[in-house]
Specification:
Putative baseplate assembly protein; 5 domains; 9 helices; alpha+beta; disordered N terminus; 18% helix; CHP02243; globular; 6-stranded antiparallel β-sheet; 666 residues
């Protein structure tokens, strides 16, 4: 069990006042007026209030010592993480082949109580002047149009037909008066997964894993009126249509020609993805293909911020203008004038000591720093930068550059993160500033992955397990503890399991199920979250252990009941209260009897649901004692518990509840 900080003095305002009044007969028996109008009573309560404030500050001492102890053993609060989304742009001009949108383009969602929610694109993208007008599949024998299936929410189609034979192809038709671009074409391919779950991320032997070829070889081509011509694939994140990701192609330019192909009667520019060789275990299914798309992160880039001026004292600290600070998308390396290689992690910081601005290296701590090493530390949560003391880490020299604004400058950093970035599809719809030729932007899928900074209480609970794991993942608890270090809300490790072989015991294999923070009834981790957890576990697993990080499998639960309420009750208020209680009880993060999240593989007990309904305010009884549990659309036997498979979770969204005033029904 984690250590709990002791309370040195638990007295409160009322306790202090009562204690003072108890002493009055002993020291001032003539004082008999105890009303609030008495000056003595007023002074007593004033000093009691001031004493309570002093005691509150005193009780923070154990808390502060606990935090300092955690920092001493290398345990810090997990910083906030930023939500990520896929955004797609639409061109307002169809007479040009492409419109360039630079990296760092700012987009906005409707503001919340904390102001506007800003996203930035993490890469540049060329927006096509031609629109994706048709999708059709050639399965080797016949064509089938998939345009409507790709556009409909919740529908998917076989990318290469039900059997995905060699020679089958997925064909994309683009319409528009403009010619096809000769520049990059960015396509986001969203693969169909069960209940929207991203594919598992595995870590066994990283070197062997990197060298494994994809399960199929795909060839991208375009039609030039005579033949299919090859296209250059710049990047394929889908690993041959086995996971969602971007495909970037070099466009054919003017050599592509409008033509009628297959069952589409309109002349279009045609690209196709053809199966050359195949070894898929399951034929790929596609939810959607989104052109002119690019990743975006809920963050704001701050550039060339003057942080301050060094005064030459040891251990100087400065605070950046924006907090919290997020890791940079890529760890770029800069070369200083003295030949040092500086790796950028979160802040590109430069200091001018008289010979021009030079980059300084961000480090975790100063333990390995020498007296002349240009190092600094960063608290990402508070955006506080700290320099060395001249023994461990260099002290920035006192210098005032031209302009007199300070000799410490943050050239670039990102700030953002939190739950506020987890937005539904279509919420990111405003372009900050002006982009010539761009009509609109949207996020076709929900933005996910945003999480708040870990609370001190949560860090305390994690501390004991972290120290027990000691940087290694051996037991199931170790895997769960280390997974939480990557910023997910919950984790469950299942030994001897493999996501591709359910029900089969696989020695040396461990599957870790992760649940992110989020407001959705069934929070689903993003690809980035799964990759982050997999990387964390890869650093702590045994060399003989194969680790798979997967999204949870959810079972949707719906309650059906006829409920008798008090005559004076408002049925809609009772409905809102009961549905909120049911959804909270069946939630993967707040559910269960202890409110800490529904247990992995936890059965649904009929008695728990019955009691929850009956104990709701203004509920008198259930009509005929009937209560139905519907799981994944199937009605469970009456008055029977429902078994949930090991490692799976439940969630609730809608219920069928009918309300009757007491006395109106038998």
């Amino acid at each position: 069990m984690p250590l709990e900080a002791p309370t040195l003095d638990d007295r409160r305002f009322d306790d202090i006042v009562a204690e003072a009044f108890q002493l009055i007969p002993r020291f001032a028996p003539e004082w008999t007026d105890r009303n609030d109008s008495d000056p003595g009573v007023a002074l007593t309560k004033l000093f009691a209030w001031m004493s309570e404030l002093t005691l509150f500050r005193l009780n923070q001492v154990p808390e502060l010592n606990y935090i300092r102890f955690l920092q001493m053993v290398g345990i810090d609060r997990i910083p906030a993480s930023a939500a990520q989304a896929i955004v797609t742009f639409a061109a307002s001009r169809t007479d040009v082949s492409e419109i360039f949108v630079p990296q760092g383009t700012q987009l906005a969602a409707p503001p919340d109580d904390n102001g506007q929610i800003i996203f930035e694109t993490t890469e540049a993208v060329s927006v096509l002047g031609t629109a994706l007008a048709a999708l059709q599949v050639w399965d080797g024998f016949s064509y089938s149009i998939a345009t409507s299936a790709a556009a409909a929410d919740g529908q998917s189609f076989h990318a290469f037909g039900p059997r995905a034979r060699e020679g089958a192809a997925l064909m994309l038709g683009f319409a528009g008066p403009a010619s096809m671009t000769a520049g990059p074409i960015s396509l986001y391919v969203r693969m169909a997964e069960r209940r929207g779950a991203p594919p598992p991320v595995s870590r066994a032997d990283p070197a062997a894993e990197a060298s494994l070829p994809p399960p199929a070889r795909l060839v991208w081509e375009y039609w030039d009126l005579a033949n299919w011509q090859p296209m250059t694939v710049l990047r394929d994140e889908t690993s041959a249509m086995t996971r969602s990701g971007h495909v970037r192609l070099r466009g054919p330019g003017n050599t592509a020609r409008l033509a009628i192909r297959g069952d589409v009667a309109t002349p279009l520019y045609w690209l196709r993805c053809r199966v050359e060789t195949t070894a898929w275990e399951a034929t790929p299914r596609v939810d959607a293909i989104i052109p002119s798309s690019v990743p975006a992160i809920q963050a704001t880039t701050q550039r060339d911020e003057v942080v301050g001026r060094s005064d030459g004292t040891p251990g100087q600290g400065f605070t950046l203008a924006l907090a919290p600070v997020l890791p940079l998308p890529s760890a770029d390396t800069l070369m200083a004038s003295d030949g040092r290689a500086v790796t950028l992690h979160a802040v590109h910081l430069e200091v001018d000591e008289g010979s021009g601005f030079e980059p300084w290296q961000e480090v975790e701590d100063f333990h390995a720093s020498g007296k002349d090493d240009p190092h600094f530390t960063l608290n990402r949560a508070t955006a506080t930068i700290r320099f060395g003391d001249g023994v461990k880490g260099r002290i920035p020299a006192v210098f005032m550059p031209a302009g007199g604004r300070g000799n410490i400058v943050a050239r670039r950093y990102l700030s953002g993160g939190g739950l506020r970035g987890n937005l539904p599809a279509g919420a990111i719809a405003t372009i900050q500033g002006f982009l010539p030729g761009i009509a609109s932007v949207t996020n076709p899928f929900a933005a996910t992955g945003g999480a708040q900074e870990e609370t001190v209480g949560a860090a305390k609970k994690r501390a004991a397990a972290h120290i027990s794991a000691n940087g290694r993942a051996v037991t199931a608890t170790d895997f769960e503890t280390n997974a939480l270090e990557a910023g997910v809300r919950r984790a469950k490790a299942l030994a001897l399991t493999h996501p591709r072989y359910p029900g089969v015991s696989i020695p040396g294999s461990v599957t870790v199920i992760v649940v992110p923070d989020g407001d959705e009834p069934n929070p689903m981790p993003s690809d980035h979250t799964l990759a982050s957890v997999a990387l964390q576990l890869d650093q702590t697993r045994l060399i003989t252990t194969e680790v798979h990080v997967v999204a949870p499998t959810y079972n949707e639960v719906s309650i059906e009941a006829d409920i008798v309420v008090k005559r004076t009750a408002a049925p809609e208020l009772v409905r809102a209260d009961l549905e909120a209680r049911l959804n909270r009880f069946l939630h993967p993060l707040t559910g269960g009897s202890e409110g800490l999240g529904w247990p992995f593989g936890g059965d649904i007990y009929y008695s728990d649901i019955y009691r929850l309904v009956i104990e709701t305010r203004d509920v008198v009884r259930l009509r005929d004692g009937q209560l139905g549990l519907r799981v994944n659309g199937e009605l469970a036997p009456f008055c029977r518990d429902v078994t949930i498979c090991p490692g799976e979770l439940v969630f609730a969204r809608t219920h069928r509840l009918a309300f009757y005033p007491d006395g109106s029904v038998p």
